[in-house]
Amino acid sequence: MKTDPREVRLRERLEAIRARSEKSNSWRSSTQYLSRLINRTGFVPIRTRLSREDLNFLAGARDEVIAFAELGLRLLELHQPQDAGGITSDPDSPIRRCRACMWRWPCPTFRAIDDAIDR
Fold first, then answer.
1. Cα 75 to the center of its chain, rounded Å
2. Which one, of 34, 52, 53, 51, lies nearest residue 42 by Cα?
3. How far is Cα 99 from Cα 82, in angstroms, rounded to an integer?
4. Angular region, 86: left φ>0, alpha ψ -120 to 50, beta rest
5. Phi, psi torsion values for 44, nearest 5 degrees
6. Three-state SS at 59
7. Is residue 46 a contact partner of residue 37, using CB atoms and an 8 Å limit?
8. Sign (positive or negative) of CA dihedral 43, 46, 52, 57
């Protein structure tokens, strides 16, 4: 079976983003300290040492986060529950299926998004 070149391109892009992210340092612990240093103009004057990996990550992080948020929202729009019809023993809880992939609700795509966001 021939691989779709679009899939290859997307997979390579996603793997590159993941690799770049994993190589950079987390700023999570630093932000608590830095938030106390905000001056009257709303900025934090900092001096820090950044690695090449950190700079590469920071250069594209904003755009990549926006793109991933848009992707997540589009997937949520596609993967919505709908009444599957048919006979059910519990009329208050009808059987529902995903309108995009027709899996039983919640579908694997919705569960994957939910799991990734809840980490």
1. 11
2. 34
3. 6
4. left
5. -115, 110
6. helix
7. yes
8. negative
Residue located via tokens 């079976």:
1
Q: Which residue do the tokens 């390579």 mark? A: 12
d(CA 72, CA 26): 23
Q: Which residues contact 107 (CB under 8 A, 6 or more apart)?
A: 79, 97, 98, 100, 101
Amino acid at 72: G
The SS3 assignment for 11 reads helix
Per residue of the chain (119 residues), what is the pLDDT tens digit? Answer: 677 788 788 889 888 888 888 888 887 888 888 888 899 999 988 888 889 988 888 888 989 999 989 999 999 999 999 987 766 677 777 788 999 999 998 999 999 999 988 77
Q: How far apart are CA 40 and CA 95, in angstroms?
A: 57
